[in-house]
Amino acid sequence: MSGLTIAERSDTGSQTRTIRVALAGCGVVGGHLAALLREHGVAIERSRGIRIELVRVLVRDVQRPRPTPLAPHILTADAESFLATPADVVIEALGGHDPAERIAWSTLAAGRDYITANKLVVARRGEELRDLARRSRARFSFEAAVAGGVPVLRVLRDALVGDDVRAVRGVLNGTTNYILSRLHEGTTFSTALTDAQASGFAEADPSRDLDGRDAADKIAILAWIAFGTDPARLRVHRAGLLPDPEALIAAARTFGGVVRLIAECVRLPGAAIASVEPVLVRPGSRFAAVHGADNLVEIDSAWSGALRFSGAGAGGAPTATALLGDILASPSPLSAPHSRACPDAHDPRPRRWVLSVRCTDRRSLIDACAAAGLTGAGVHADRRTGTLHVLTERCLRTDVARAAALLRARHEAVIESRYDLEEDS
After folding, report:
1. Whole-model pTM?
2. Is 119 a catalytic residue?
3. What is the pLDDT of residues 299-331, one digit of tens each?
4. Cis before residue 243, ω within 30 degrees of 0?
5. Which of the residues 124, 182, 184, 218 is marked catalytic?
């Protein structure tokens, strides 16, 4: 592991540990981290005996004005120059996979600690980066990659290390939860999305949030820490808010529920099943109570029972706080568990589902459900939106997928949601 500079503190005469930080990315998350260090650096030094020195910042445009002033000499737009900077810790807050993955490999191969908020890199390359960190005796930390400021990874990795975790589920994407909350209030989708972007809860390109890929990466990381399942190999059934978020709200109103995008991973004998999908939950349920950009994570364990953690899950400040927590954490080689054989499988649990279609052809829906083997399905019409909703009896996800495929061949917008109004969700 990289050595840290030790310096004398002039006020007390005690020693201060200096951590030299190189930061890749100074957007919403990186900018908030720079602000945290600027505003609270002295307090951290006094309370923790740690001086955090920002020695290099990788940005796209060094001339761009920033809310937090940075010394011009620490800014660079050149990734190679950034990687050559002497630093104890490299923090990556760029997002995407390039140059983020190159920074991760180069940092850990050099034996330097690597901290990231990039769930895409961890989900794609987590096992390989963990192995590289172990060989190099460096830290690989990624608390900020899941649930913003909610320290759920630390709980799974440290507090529950000896427990038997059976399932992890929750609202893991603050962007979609903010949008769904606004839609339930009567706001249009376009307005809700614009407001989310203006508030820093959504990227300029929100597609990974809206189609469920962001939450799928996060649940794969949680499954890795909880079960030892390689996140790159876990198959996650994914259905986001697209193509018709307003149809989801119409379905919720029809059945008296609230829509939440819920990610779930359950360990079965010899297998793990994972999903991200819109779920209709009871208005008074714990998931319905998660408003705005907040997240809620529930861990079901054999010995500790059901543990719930909630807090801000989107935005620069909570994510930057999680990055700062990883900087200040005790130096130790990473921990994620050794991989265990845990192949994916089809979900064997019969459940109820809703298929929502913007059409008035009731017979088309009934025929598609019958062709997929779904019997006893009721069709509910929402004349205000011109949407038909099929509520199935309890059946397997594979049967619903067949019905949805048949419907999509005839109608452009078909959206699936799980009906959990009968569950204690």
Report:
1. 0.90
2. no
3. 998 888 889 999 887 778 889 999 999 999 866
4. yes
5. 218
